[in-house]
């Protein structure tokens, strides 16, 4: 019996089934969900926030004493600086302002994740140090996209969908001049790390190091080490371990 027609049919099915399965797997990955959530926020902001009033930057990576921090969205305006953290999640969300971890419940399964307000606090401190502005003019905003439902009471700055637009627009008292907004935009554009894959990889490495209790310490002062990238000299572009207290301690070590 000639099986070649059957094999040809099976092969034809596999040629589209395998790529489709890989694509579905990719779309369900945390990375893809994060990218989709951030894209939705960009679209909402583009439609609802005037570009001249609310100057925006996305995917902003800044240096911090213990490595780097990565901010989803920054909106600079005469009414303050709005620092937006995006969560693309479904299911029920349980959490309060003071809890270290919140809970996502999907059917009968529960998952813990870091309180996004605490996560965003570090972003605010990095911007405060970079721009030299009063913390009173920095506003943390969290938005959940993806069809999630809050099952506990949350603060006004934790929103769903386009709710972050209403929260941002609720600030109407001018605290910065147009020139100051332009100056802050320029400071962030020049002070941020280049939005490249290498920057993202370095940030992920620093996140892993900070969560690892066995991470190496500075041989000179005992402080935590962070991964840095050489910007000058013969080794430009290469990564190395640097002391987190730099410039107080300038100890360096090869990876």
Top keywords for this entry?
single chain; alpha/beta; 12 strands; 6 helices; five-stranded mixed sheet; 255 residues; four-stranded mixed sheet; globular
What's the SSE blueprint?
Layout: H1 4-27, H2 30-48, E1 55-64, E2 67-77, E3 80-88, E4 92-94, E5 101-106, E6 109-114, H3 116-131, E7 138-145, E8 149-150, E9 158-160, H4 163-169, H5 178-191, H6 197-210, E10 225-229, E11 239-243, E12 252-254
Parallel strand pairs: 3-7, 4-8, 7-9
Antiparallel strand pairs: 1-2, 2-3, 4-5, 5-6, 10-11, 11-12
Description of the molecule:
- It is a single chain.
- The protein has 255 residues and is α/β, with parallel strands linked by helices.
- It has six helices and twelve strands.
- The strands form three sheets. The chain has a five-stranded mixed beta sheet with strand order 1-2-3-7-9, with helices on both faces. A four-stranded mixed beta sheet has the order 6-5-4-8.
- It starts with a helix and ends with a strand.
């Amino acid at each position: 019996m000639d099986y070649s027609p059957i094999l040809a049919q099976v092969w034809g099915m596999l040629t589209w089934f395998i790529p489709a399965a890989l694509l579905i797997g990719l779309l369900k990955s945390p990375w893809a969900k994060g990218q989709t959530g951030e894209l939705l926020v960009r679209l909402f902001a583009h439609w609802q926030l005037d570009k001249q009033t609310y100057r925006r930057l996305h995917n902003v990576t800044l240096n911090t004493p213990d490595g780097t921090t990565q901010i989803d969205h920054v909106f600079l305006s005469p009414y303050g600086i709005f620092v937006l953290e995006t969560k693309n999640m479904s299911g029920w969300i349980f959490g309060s302002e003071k809890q270290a971890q919140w809970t996502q419940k999907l059917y009968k399964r529960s998952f813990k994740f870091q309180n996004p307000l605490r996560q965003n606090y570090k972003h605010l401190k990095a911007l405060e140090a970079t721009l030299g502005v009063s913390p009173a003019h920095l506003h943390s905003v969290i938005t959940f996209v993806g069809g999630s439902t809050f099952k506990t009471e949350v603060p006004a700055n934790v929103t769903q969908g386009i709710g972050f637009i209403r929260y941002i627009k609720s600030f109407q008292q001018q605290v910065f001049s147009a020139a100051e907004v332009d100056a802050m935009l320029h400071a962030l554009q020049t002070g941020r790390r280049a939005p490249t894959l290498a920057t993202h990889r370095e940030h992920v490495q620093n996140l892993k190091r900070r969560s690892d209790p066995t991470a190496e310490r500075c041989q000179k002062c005992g402080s935590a080490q962070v991964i840095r990238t050489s910007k000058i000299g013969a080794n430009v572009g290469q990564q190395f371990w640097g002391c987190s207290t730099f410039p107080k301690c300038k100890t360096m070590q090869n990876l």
